[in-house]
Structures are given as C-alpha cells and as structure tokens.
Amino acid sequence: MSRNKTPSESGKLDQVIAEALRNRERREKTYREQAMKLFPPICARCGREFEGKKLRELTVHHKDHNHDNNPPDGSNWELLCLYCHDNEHSRGVSAEWYGEPAPEEDRQPTTTYKAFGALEALLKGKTPDKK
Questions:
Q1: How far is CA 47 from the centre of its chain?
Q2: 84: how many CB neighbours lie within 10 A of its CB?
Q3: Contact, 70 vs 31, CB < 8 A?
Q4: pLDDT tens digits, residue range 3-17?
Q5: Alpha carbons 79 and 37: distance in angstroms, whole number
C-alpha cells in the first residue's frame, strides 16, 4: 500500500539524503579515497589487481606507520591487499620478538667481504692487490 508523504516526512527524507551526500563527500576526501584515485588498484607487494567488489580487499598502508601523516601527493601511502598488509605489520612484530631490527630500521652490514670488489680490476686486466 502506498501513501503520500507528509511535508514533515519529506523534510526528514531530504535531511537524510543531504547528510548521506555530505558523508560521501567527507569519505572521498579521506586518505583511502585519495589513494584509490592516485594509484592503480594493484597491490604494491604481490602485484594482484583488484576491481569491483574486490576493491574492498585493497588497503592503504602508511609507509612510516603514522596514520596522521597523509600528504596529498600520497608519498606516505601504498596500496596493499589484506594479506600483504597483514604481513607488513607482522614483520615488525616478529622482528621485535626476536630482537632483530624492524624492516624499516637501518641495518648494519653483517659482513665487510665484497665478493665482486676486485671485478673491475680483473675486467681491465689488472691483478688485484693481495693482502
């Protein structure tokens, strides 16, 4: 059964629609919407492509792990699928657990030996100095 809407019901419906439009505009300004416009819908780690309903499986990863650092050029973001995003965050936790430097920390080289250190001299026909 259909019935005519009263003016007050019509006004409430207009308010709901206006609020929904404002929320959509606000959401489009969020970093996820910005990132989705800046980058192709591809996971930056595994290269999997996303489209349609699967786009919800693509997430925005903050490279510096600071969710307040959202530059408009997207330089702190990368799109990662749910699996790669989870892996990225668990790598830091694993490193912490085992007392290793986290992936984003500077690491010291574990060795000073350079396997190809004398290659340039060999290619030029010179013999490397032996110690």
A1: 13
A2: 20
A3: yes
A4: 565 666 778 899 999
A5: 11
Euclidean distance between CA atoms 100 and 94, whole angstroms: 8
Question: From CA 122, how far away is CA 103, in angstroms rounded?
Answer: 36
Place of tokens 């920390």: 105
pTM for this predicted structure: 0.52
Question: Quick one: CA torsion of 54, 42, 70, 61, rounded to 10 degrees?
Answer: 80
Region for 121 from its dihedrals, namely left if φ exceeds 0, alpha if ψ lies in -120 to 50, beta otherwise: alpha
pLDDT in tens, 63-73: 988 887 888 89
Following DSSP, what letter does each residue of 44-111 receive, concatenated? TTT--B--GGGGGGEEEEETTS-TT---TT-TTEEEEEHHHHHHHHHHHHHHHHHTPPPTTS----S-
Stretches where the chain sits below pLDDT 70 are: 1-8, 27-29, 92-111, 126-131
* Cα 126 to Cα 115: distance, rounded to the nearest angstrom: 17
